Amino acid sequence: MKKSIACLLVIASLGGAVAASAQTLQPLDRIAAVVDEDVILQSELDRAVRNVTQQYANQPGQLPPQNVLERQVLERLVLMKLQVARANSSGITVTDDELNNAVAGIAQQNGTTIDGLRQRIAADGLSFDEFRNSVRDEITVQRLRQSFAQSRIQVSEAEVNAAMAAQASGGTQYHLAHILVALPEGATPEQIATGQKKVDGIKALLDKNEMEFNAAAVRYSDSPNALEGGDLGWRSVDEIPPAFVETLKGMNAGQVVGPIRGPSGFQLLKLVETRDASQAAPKMVTEYHARHILVRITPTQDAAAAKAKIDTARARVAGGADFAAVAKEASEDTNTRDNGGELGWFPADAYGPDFGQKIAALQDGQVTEPFRSEAGWHIVQREGSRQSDVGDANRRSQVRETIGRRKLEEEYNRFLQEMRGEAFVSFRNQADAAATPTTAPAPAPATPAPSGG
User: What is residue 283's predicted lDDT score, i.e. its pLDDT?
Assistant: First the structure.
């Protein structure tokens, strides 16, 4: 999907550590927050707030007061810092080659060259080094999420069977939005009472039509998607926590329910609209036939050694060697090595979005450049593609993926909440960082708690 430069700058501004530059060395650039052993500079915060404001240029009334907006953006920057630090401590890295490829891809998606992208970034007041660092942080966080999903998220056959049965009965999809008033793990009675008072105040504003739901989410929600108006997008039944499903079935579009007490705190849930799931479900999928060579990263084989091996394998193939023969000799995927790296036919998302995008960009017979996944370094040869009916096996795979996404969202938000609660975070020059909105009837002051979903 083509991204606008403005959108990319929001990502950049919410990225992690910003490289030292002439601007950041000026005496006027203060520290906005200390996050464990890292810092967020005031210039980072100002730039991030400015870009969020630009995104709402046509809807300025949707934004909260400046001090509240700064607090929300600062919390996002804090979470990004914490995620990047956790990824780095877990050995998750992004090489310069991977970063160069990602930046080249962004330029291509925006119909320009690297030099053209550099000029457009500079015109928007961001240095190219800062932009590259923010892209690196985004990739790092994506890999942290992938690693988290692989280690923590399990989907049972019973869950898949139940979701398949619901789809067969003509299920409905729901467009949802929410407002979260977060509570810390092991909240005290006083913290719970404060949270209850705040969420009741927000609900009162909505009931009296004194504020639109998305505006209230931007202003008051503790959820990471607050600045998106709390929008959760379209969800099928298998992507919604079971506790909410029966409630949704009795709601009308536009209705708000809650507060509902959940693992992360109190929630207000809005049903934006509904649609027939059968109308939205795809009938055909693109499948690919491919082979691959994998060189794993292990405690005895670091990323550099693995990269050297995959580069050698890629050079042999480029020199005319048979891909299957090289796979039998060099691949460290024991499941496919003996068959020359044969993967058979599979949908694009079978091995994750990055893997699928690499194959989709090839012509039949072409081989990817080396790329890295959580498993290690790969090269892939595409042998064919086809359009296939979505059969039971594919539907089961899709259902399993949607259930996994829903579970990942829930568990990862709790993971963020835990990290935020354990971290040392000190706001500087932000006396109003925890300020309470004063619109009457004002919700109670927010409990100092991590954002979570």
Answer: 57
